[in-house]
Design a protein that fits this description.
Strand 2 and strand 3 form a beta hairpin. Helix 1 crosses helix 2. By secondary structure, this protein is an alpha+beta fold. Helix content is 42%, strand content 16%. A three-stranded antiparallel beta sheet has the order 1-3-2.
Amino acid sequence: MTVTKLFSVPQFARATGLSAAAARAMIREGQLPTVRVGRRQRVDARWVEKWLATANPDIPATQTIGR
């Protein structure tokens, strides 16, 4: 079984330098895939790392987020 790190929307916003409102707008517009955990939405850390690598090529691919 693989355990995947999931970010809350505010954690995703802090990790990417976005506002929580901008992150929620990305969710509403379908730009940010999320996973539902109960009533809450979570963002897969693997997706965040991929997004950061393509959004900012200065971030090394081996850098991990949230550890």
